[in-house]
Amino acid sequence: MAEAPTAEPAAEPAAQPAPEPRRRPRLAVYKFSSCDGCQLQLLNLEDELLALADAVEIAYFLEARRQELPPPYDVGLVEGSISTPEEEERIQTVRRNCKFLVAIGACATSGGIQSLRNWANVEEFTRHVYARPQWIKSLETATPIAAHVFVDFELHGCPVNPRQLLELVSALLNHRRPNIPTHCLCIECKRRGLPCVLSAHGEPCLGPITQAGCGALCPAVGRACYGCFGPMEQPRIGALGERFAQAQQRPPAEIMRMIRSFNGYLEPFKQASDHYERQAAQQD
Amino acid sequence: MLRAVARRRQRAAASLPNRDAAMKGTTAMVVSHASPGAPRFLPRAALADLVTLLQDEGFTVVGPTVVDGVVMYRPIDSPDDLPHGVNDVQQRGTYRLAEGDPELTFEFASGPDSPKRFLFPPQQQLMQFRVQGEGFEVTAGPPDVPKIALLGVRPCDLAAIRVQDRVFGQDDPATFRCESEPWYEQAREQTLLVAVNCTSPGGNCFCVSWGTGPEAHEGFDLSLTELRDGFICRAGSPRGKELAAKLPLREPTRTELDLAELLMNRACEHMGRALDTASVKELLEQKREDSHWDEVAQRCLSCGNCTMVCPTCFCSTVTDVTDLSGEETTRVRSWESCFTHQFSYTVAGPGRDSLRSRYRHWLRHKLCTWQDQFGVSGCVGCGRCITWCPVGIDITQEVQALRNDSTSLPAPIAPACAFSSEGSPP
Q1: B391, A195: Cβ pair inside 8 Å?
Q2: Same domain for B253 and B366?
Q3: Which of A68, A210, B102, B125 has its CA 20 to 30 A from that of A107?
């Protein structure tokens, strides 16, 4: 039989050390060539911002606070593309300083709208735009972060969706895989019960080849998706382009411009836009 | 006159490919309602009485309304919200509203919405739970089942509901293969169905091929056949009979009955498409390795639109979403599609990596293995997958192409279906 517990308390345990303050993961947010919109999406999480600041230590986020805590950081969110020699070097330091590096937004994941210059002559641009082009130090190309360093995860979108940002941080904090769908926008659009702008209005909607995640913002206001979330998993660009060409009588040059936009430099959008450019040239 | 109508109907039926065989699958479905009551006449002005009556009984009335140029199901306040004088032109991959007869309310064909949206919602919280030590405590369940009256349900969609009844485990244990869905069952029991027979089928309709339309014979509470001055109204359930007793119905005249029958016959003859359903199951069992699948894969976008608008497709995905602290978790179920790469992803990699395998899986499940699994065809002939496919892939043409193609293997090389209709489910 087990002995009945004695009423007397056991010997006084050694004074416990005061519980150490929980070490919060350190978050860093970086900006490269970009419009700051993706960083703003983080600040747009107004209802969750306090909880977020409680869950992580915002160690480096120049858009939001002046204070900089020294590296290393647990999570680094990188916005923007690599467009200058200085950025080319800085991204290496950023990679070294972050355990987990996430590229956020179209610029960081595809090169962004500025990567349109990859098809043009940068020197000619600078001569036309700047009074003193010799002061401009710019790379020939604007490229995504993953073209320079290893990236642990990519969040698509121009800008990224704040819900997806929050989901990503929650997943990282809880050591689980983020629920970021890679299927096309149509599924999100149909779940919402939105009228299809492609089938019902003949709009040149890129929804069937674009990754979901925005919440079907454009179709919800009757506009065609213009692909700011970039290519879905295994997109069938040629089959959709065929539809635009046949049923909607859109010329190759127009299809090329549709695909070569925010994510134009990202494969397979890049390859497809090159294809339609060649087709357009053949027609001329 | 009546005899002439009956003859025409017989001719229409005889001209259909193996209609009886096709109907066996569908009409042998769940017979849960009494046979429809005697036809009565609901004057057009009394449609408002019907809506008010349903609202008074505590129902949210959901009916077809025009939203941005598309007829969709939305909550309605009065018959004014219904699409009066609206017709539609549906072709492969296109849908356009057109001007219809200004005196008619239900002249359009199916839009993208089906009752599936309300019985099996596209996104639904299953539960919320809080992690506690090794286990967890459930803090909330699914949302309450809303009390909805669906107005304007088409006969093909009634058939689709009967198909989903088998999927979600209602009524017939003999064919029941999945986990029971308590929310679905409750929604099914609570939702009132006012069917509207099709007098003006759409360009992609082929319900006659499956025997699921254009007239509803079972599975509704009330059914309406639209005439110019009103509706031929039948009660199909005890609840429907109670409602009918409260409506200002009158005896229909012989002319009105004849006209309604004539309209049904005419609808049979004006299906936009036809599917040769004769031995379609055997055909797809044979055509497992056919070059035609490669040909479809060239056109298919793998976007999943067909599965989203299909009234019987039931694939879903369940995700757990944690809050930042990791203590509160919400489990959400969303519609998914066998066309997404992620959906078939397992620890061994994606199960259906190629587009060919995805389209083949969808078509063979719909028309072939569905029958092994649930004892009924997964297609009801509503034609939505044809209209809402961005590139206009037509299920009826694909089946025909498979029929015509002689390059396929002569016989299946393995047991054609994973599920046997006799054996127990795995």
Answers
A1: no
A2: no
A3: A68
User: Which pair of tokens denotes residue B20?
Assistant: 């009886």
Cβ of residue A40 closer than 8 Å to a chain B Cβ: no
Residue B73 has, within 13 A of its CA and on its CB side, a CA count of 25
Q: Does CATH place domain A26-173 in 3.40.50.700?
A: yes
- Residue A245 sits at the chain B interface (C-beta within 8 Å): no
Confidence (pLDDT) at A248 = 87
Q: Is residue B130 part of a domain?
A: no
Question: Does residue B424 carry a pLDDT above 90?
Answer: no
Q: What is the rounded distance in angstroms from the CA atom of residue A151 to the CA atom of residue A109?
A: 9
Could you tell me which residues are beta bridge partners of residue B64? B73
For chain A, the average pLDDT equals: 92
Is position B275 within any domain? no
Q: How far is B98 from chain A (nearest CA, A)?
A: 12
Kindly give, in sequence order, each residue whose CB lies less than 8 Å from that of residue A145, ignoring residues fewer than 6 positions away.
A32, A78, A81, A82, A91, A101, A103, A108, A109, A151
Rounded to whole angstroms, the Cα distance separating A118 from A110 reads: 12
Q: Are residues B257 and B302 in the same domain?
A: no
Q: Which residue of A has its CA nearest to B334?
A: A191
What is the interface pTM, i.e. ipTM, of the complex? 0.88
User: Is B393 contained in some domain?
Assistant: yes
Cβ contact, residue pair A195, B67, below 8 Å: yes
Nearest CA in chain A to B354: A234
Q: CA A110 to CA A142: how far, in whole Å?
A: 9
Q: Do B226 and B363 belong together in one domain?
A: no
Q: Write out the DSSP string of B190-237.
A: H-EEEEE--SS--TT--HHHHT--SS--SS-SEEEEE-SSEEEEEE-S
Give the Cα separation of B371 and B280 in Å (integer): 11
Q: How far is B373 from chain A (nearest CA, A)?
A: 25
- The answer to whether residue A4 scores a pLDDT higher than 90 is no
Instruction: Establish, for the pair of chains A and B, how many residue pairs have beta carbons separated by less than 8 Å.
Output: 137
Domain residues for the domain of B176 are 2-122+142-269
- How many domains does one find in chain B? 2
Q: Are residues B391 and B303 in the same domain?
A: yes
Contact A59, A29 (CB under 8 A): no
Domain contains B415? no
8 Å CB contact of A182 and B341: yes
Same domain membership, residue B310 and residue B252: no
> Which among A173, A199, A233 is the nearest to B93, CB-wise?
A199
